[in-house]
Amino acid sequence: MAHRLGGRRKNVKKGFQFTFMVVGASGTGRTTFVNTLCDSGVLPKKISDNPEEAHNEAGIKIKPVSVELDEDGVRISLTIVDTPGFGDNIDNEKCFQEIVGYLESQYDDILAEENRIKRNPRFRDNRVHALLYFIAPTGHALREIDIELMRRLSPRVNVIPVIGRADSLTPQELRDFKRRIMEDIEHYNIPIYNFPYDPEEDDEDTVEENSELRTLLPFAIIGSDEEIVVNGRTVRGRQYPWGAVEVDNPKHSDFARLRSALLSSHLQDLKEITHDFLYENYRTEKLSRTINGGDQDGAALDADEMASQSVRLKEEQLRREEEKLRDIELKVQKEIQEKRQELLAKEEALRSLEARLAAAQLQDAA
Amino acid sequence: MSALNGYVGFDTITQQIEKKLLKRGFQFNVMVVGQSGLGKSTLVNTIFASHLIESKGRVACDEPPRQTTEIETVGHIIEENGVRLKLNIVDTPGYGDQVNNENCWEPIIKYIKDQHSAYLRKELTATREKYIQDSRIHCCLFFLTPSGHALKPIDIVVLKKLSEVVNVVPVIAKSDALTLEERAAFKMRIKQELTFHNIRLYPYESEEDDEQEQALNESIRDLIPFAVVGSERNVVVDGKAVRGRKNRYGVINVENEDHCEFVHLRNFLTRTHLQDLIETTAQIHYEAFRSKQLLAIKESTQQPTSPGAVHPPITPVNGNASSSALTSPTSTSVPAF
């Protein structure tokens, strides 16, 4: 563990900043998961509002919420982005675009900030470092909406698939379901965050830990913000007439493993991949589009404009400087030419003078 | 009523009818509607205690996800104590599973109306069969996702449309995902929404009902939507083998009324309201369809330029009605017994 903490020693005091997004249809346990993770009512449960409103399709609302956590003495400044309304409409095509739009606009902010001449030292990085996608516990395989969403979002964010409300699945059903989901993910070439490791470069512990986490994918999550009494102990869980399920019991749910991976062991890795890989890809795509005068579809955000403008400005500057250099070169060359000509002329004059002198001397001698 | 002076014996007509009916057998057609993965096939198999339909879930990764709602019918004959039941189970795989689910309910509504239409056609034939094969849907089980929140907009739209043409019984699928409090809150919320949208669900009120029947119907209406759990596998509870599910923290007994409402649903469908479901389909839904159609025919014969009915008007034909300007039921439908 030391090698991993090594780089963070300086940051431990300052704390970490981490942003993750939760996406899934209503009823898959998103909100409860977040509240269980933070051990407090961070997100409000879906309010049973008017039955008269239910048929109105509100579309998707993207809401970031900030909370401070203390994880083993390390301060984490956590931002959680909830997406209520996803998958609840009859036509869910727009939901995807909104989420992708949100992710890209965070990248645009960074891009604009990087290109500013005078940067803001207190700039807040709002990029989403991980996206937890909640799969409904059907027991079959991925649905079309699951495949589409993960496919479209994985170029922009680390996608971690999660089975929400996994309490109703028997152990056998869960095993088969997980296997089928992973088969689907491979079949459809969906690049999810699968705890990457290099068997040659990384040490044994890392390899072991990452491959173990990989076999747990997708994490089977049970969340609860209520406490129940089980065998005399008070634990977080859900009470059914036939038994009680405990959130923190690794035999019941993968919640604890996911939490430690997300907030502790793999937090840095997720951030690095977001910055070094996902953001860089987006940046390259975006800039090559701007330079080639590619189509700027969709609403041009301020950051967007600024980013492209500052790029253009920079290029203008470069061009002007090049021109100046060229001018200077030309001028210098001209001067050299003139000087040379002068020199030649002077030499001519000198020679003719010498000739006349020689002729004059000859005349005198004779 | 006139008084009798001696025993006549016409009270045996009930046995005479029974004898005839037993020979003929009974026909029951049930449709299941809901997103994939809600346990529709398992529930039907649990209700009728036999493996009647296969799950249509996608289990192989190279199998592509369905892009539309398809209708599949399976027929079985089951027998109990000399009573033969011809069962048709109509499944609707692909419903509500796409990103864009606009109009995914249309094939379902069309199928239901096609069955009414086929029956009407046979009825209006000059030389018709003695006993018309009844392929009309007597009951539609509508499966709700156990989200614990509220009905989805698509559920509301489809429930409205379905309740106009068929007896709809909504059920909360896989209800072992909800604690008892969540279940109660969910049910109440659903009931509020159903009332708000004026969705008429079976059982309907009727003046013919006596007090006992009315009380029974009230209690059924109270329970709706039924929170059910299905299972075809057995688990051991108190030394006995019962149908249930064993998960990591407990054993769910499907037939235990404290665990879920399966028993109530099963009794409702098979032990108390089976005959009524068949009758109301004929007397209420079919009649409504029939009168609309016949009025449309009358109008179209009086004014040739009048707009057509919702369903293409039927022209009575002589002999066997095989070819006509009608939409016939989908090719995978009604097996002929």
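Residues 233 and 243 of chain B are 6 Å apart (CA to CA).
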